[in-house]
Amino acid sequence: MTGPVSGPPPTAAFHVDVSGGDVLIVDDFKDTLVLYDALLTDDGHKVRTALSGAAALKMVEEREPELVLLDVSMPGMDGVEVLQHLRARRGGGPAVIMLTAARREPQAIELGLRGGADAYLTKPIDSRELLARTRAALESFRLRRMLEGQRRDHIAMLVHDLRHPLSSMGLLAEIMEGEELSQDERFSATQQMRALCGDMARLIDGVLAASRLEAGVFTVEPRVVTVGAVIDSTLKVFAPVAARRRVTFAFDGPREARILADAPKLRQALDNLVANALKFTPKGGRIRFGVEIVKDAVAPPREGQSQGPPRTMAVFQVADSGPGIAAAEAATIFDRYRQGLRGRAAGGAGLGLAIARGIAEAHGGWVAVAPPAEGEPQGACFRLAVPVP
Predict the structure, then answer these.
(1) Which one, out of 20, 135, 259, 267, has a CA that is 20 to 30 A from the CA of 167?
(2) Residues 250, 287: Cα–Cα separation, whole Å
(3) pLDDT greater than 90 at residue 41
(4) Which of 318, 7, 352, 358 has the alpha carbon at shortest distance from 202?
């Protein structure tokens, strides 16, 4: 069994603009306010200042900032008390609260961190550190906000994708209640219901796999299996769909070849690639599904990862005659919750290709966008590699 595998850190996949942060500086020394204000304003942030805790709370009521730079030691209402008021606001108050304190105030810093502060800076604060920590805090907050928004959107898409087969099953159940149905019609309705159940099961399995990948607890149990043991189920599921859409769908390659794979999970990855191809291949189009044993295969370059030594690998290929993938999207199309301009992540929820990558890498292999070979369908082409025994 391989160890847990997770994707790259989110910052590797997303660019976050940290300019124009909404910052509130709270300090009872005017000279400090003027200095911090000038530094952060010059760095492109929108800055407000407050000389007291009471003034700061009033400003937060008027407009809640993204980041508060809060001095711990102030007369009257000190920084820890202000922090408590801010964190008691609906939603937890400003996204980021950074305390500023002298080195001789460790107890106040500890109280603040326990009370919900995100970080602290010790005075005197170096200007470069102030700017760097502010940018990093805003980047972290905005990245979390963006990912949370994308998750909400994709959950809504998943619910929509599940609602369609459920509605269809309800209609089929009503039809089957009718006594006038012939035996053949009843059998056909039953087969359609089974197919819809399969569609919903694949959606749910995809979400579960994505959750395990994101949590870093996704594992595989590779065993020696034949190619046919993996792909026969995929062909059985998708060949009828391709036929209904008048799409030529055929497999080419040695079915008896032995590979080292967790058959159900590798099948899930290949199902995602084939489903993606079917989604974007027009009527009358063509999909080639194949495998070849490649000696001295090398993983394609990927940012932040070494390619590793050449190995003998079983390389599956799914090529279609759909619209293809823009070169600019090839590097990010496998990222979770990302879709290409044409929705090439497939499955509605933007998880299909991310799951395929996670499964391939858990096997010690890879998946990548590849240029279609001569004689192949000239749309999108994906190659997924797993080891051979």
Answers:
(1) 267
(2) 7
(3) yes
(4) 352
- Work out the burial of residue 81: count CB atoms within 10 Å of its CB; fewer than 13 is exposed, 13-18 middle, 19 or more buried: middle
Instruction: Judge contact between 84 and 99, C-beta under 8 A.
Output: no
Confidence at residue 170, expressed as pLDDT on a 0 to 100 scale: 79
Please write the tens of the pLDDT for every residue from 82-138.
Answer: 999 999 998 888 888 999 988 777 888 888 888 899 888 988 899 999 999 999 888
CA distance 88 to 134: 23
As given in the structure block, the two tokens for residue 25 are 């500086």
Confidence of residue 337 (pLDDT cuts 50, 70, 90): low
User: Mean pLDDT for the chain?
Assistant: 82
User: What tokens appear for 358 in the block?
Assistant: 């996670």
- The residues with which 305 forms a beta bridge, in sequence order, are 302
For residue 51, give both structure tokens: 């000389």
Query: Taking the CB of residue 137, how many other CB atoms lie within 10 A of it?
Result: 22
Here the contacts of 237-244 (C-beta below 8 Å, separation 24 or greater) are 237/198, 237/271, 238/271, 238/274, 238/275, 238/278, 241/278, 242/278, 242/287
Q: Which of 204, 212, 348 is closest to 275 using CA atoms?
A: 348
3-state secondary structure of 239: helix
Residue with tokens 């009521």: 61
CB 171 within 8 A of CB 189: no
What CA–CA distance (Å, rounded) separates 129 from 121? 9
Structural domains present in the chain? 10-144 (3.40.50.2300), 149-215 (1.10.287), 223-387 (3.30.565.10)
Question: Is residue 226 within 8 Å of residue 259, measured between CB atoms?
Answer: yes
Tokens in use for 40?
């952060």
CB-based burial label for 73 (10 Å; 0-12, 13-18, 19+): middle
Residues whose CB is less than 8 angstroms from the CB of residue 318 and which lie 6 or more positions away in sequence, other chains included: 270, 273, 274, 276, 277, 287, 288, 289, 381, 382, 384
How far, in Å, CA of 33 to CA of 293, rounded? 67
Tokens of 360: 């391939």
Is the pTM of the predicted complex or chain greater than 0.70? no
